[in-house]
Amino acid sequence: RRERQRFVDKNGRCNVQHGNLGGESSRYLSDLFTTLVDLKWRWNLLIFLLTYTVAWLVMASMWWGIAYLRGDLHRAHDGAYSPCVANVYNFPSAFLFFIETEATIGYGHRYITERCPEGIVLFLFQSLLGSIVDAFLIGCMFIKMSQPKKRAETLMFSRAAVVSQRDGKLCLMFRVGNLRNSHMVSAQIRCKLIKSRQTPEGEFLPLDQCELDVGFGTGADQLFLVSPLTICHEINSKSPLFCLSQRSLRSEQFEIVVILEGIVETTGMTCQARTSYTEDEVLWGHRFLPVMSLEDGFFHVDYSQFHATFEVPTPPYSVKE
Fold first, then answer.
1. What number of H helices and E strands is found in the chain?
2. Pairing between strand 161-166 and 282-284?
3. How many angstroms separate the Cα of 130 from the Cα of each of 47, 65, 138, 174, 206?
4. DSSP labels for 39-98?
5. What does the pLDDT read at residue 76?
6. Residue 161 in contact with residue 232, Cβ under 8 Å?
């Protein structure tokens, strides 16, 4: 097997990194919410903790500053004096008052008096700021946790694709399966052939994308993915693989990207699973082993044979030949 750089890994991760953005990097800040959702979990948790920690310390410092400017810190234990916030006489007590106010715990020991207009204004500002921070960060964490990316982990693709005859026609085939009992609603599959080529005008296209028809015209690309299915691309005169033969398969360099999309039945969210097959993972003259069997009142799927293939007589010539 020849090892080379893949455009899409077997697990669906795209090997593309964006660099030298220059001034365009400011676009990430203009859509800050999506940027935070796209970050890795470690950065999300770090931003979540830092934002709340800094906001709490700043607001607690403001409450402590009001008490310091009014002289409440030195007369907090004076029963005849009416402070801005009762029982706030140092920074820890100001911090505890802020936490009690923000979390609406209300122990009753610390409270704002009516003779402190600046404290009332700060309380209103704290309520508005706290609501905005909570809505932004908690909403970000909720969206990130509810993303259906992990649902794609239970969508399987065969390790290899095969080329053999079906109904007298040469076809490229691969297998997909769903490990969960919950269905993928409106599941649709697409295939792209990634291959470098040079145009008649001399322009070199390093990653040219061509569509592989897997039943778009007949509706075969709309899947009822209850049991494992074998997806078939007929190699004909309109196929980009029209000139592919068993001999040329050894010298070609291409990658077939498979994209499976559907709506998760339990959440109603759109999920996408991806994989790819390089020329080394296309087996000429092979067919997939059956995985379905009829048991007592139900159909049994044997996933131990999901990736298994066997050789079948197949002409080594291309469709063009």
1. 5, 14
2. parallel
3. 16, 19, 11, 52, 50
4. S-HHHHHHHHHHHHHHHHHHHHHHHHHHHHHHTTTTSTT-TT---SBTT--SHHHHHHHH
5. 62
6. no
Span(s) in the chain for CATH 2.60.40.1400: 150-311
Tell me, what amino acid is at 319?
V
Q: DSSP secondary structure string, 165-190?
A: EETTEEEEEEEEEE-SSS-EEEEEEE
Dmax over CA atoms of the chain, in Å, equals 104
Contact call for residues 288 and 309 (beta carbons, < 8 A) = yes
Phi, psi of 186 (to 5 degrees): 55, 45
Model confidence pLDDT, tens digit, residues 63-105: 888 888 888 777 766 667 777 888 888 888 888 888 888 887 7
Name residue 171's beta-bridge partners.
164, 234
Determine the Cα–Cα distance for residues 181 and 299; give it in Å rounded to an integer: 13
- 24-146 architecture in CATH? Orthogonal Bundle (1.10)
Q: 86: number of CA atoms within 13 Å, CB side? A: 14
User: pLDDT tens for residues 251-279?
Assistant: 888 999 999 999 888 888 888 899 999 99
Q: Which residues pair with 174 in a beta bridge?
A: 231
Cβ atoms 259, 192 nearer than 8 A? yes
pLDDT-based confidence at residue 120 (cuts at 50, 70, 90):
confident
Domain with CATH 1.10.287.70 in the chain: 24-146
Burial state string for 235-248 with b = 16 or more CB within 10 A and e = fewer than 16: beeebbbeebbeee
Is the domain defined by 150-311 classed in CATH 3.50.50.60? no
CA distances from 121 to 103, 113, 126, 133, 304 (A): 18, 12, 9, 18, 67
Average pLDDT score over residue span 144-170: 87
User: Residue 131 carries which side chain, given as an amino acid letter?
Assistant: S
Give tens-digit pLDDT for 294-321: 888 888 888 889 999 999 999 998 888 8
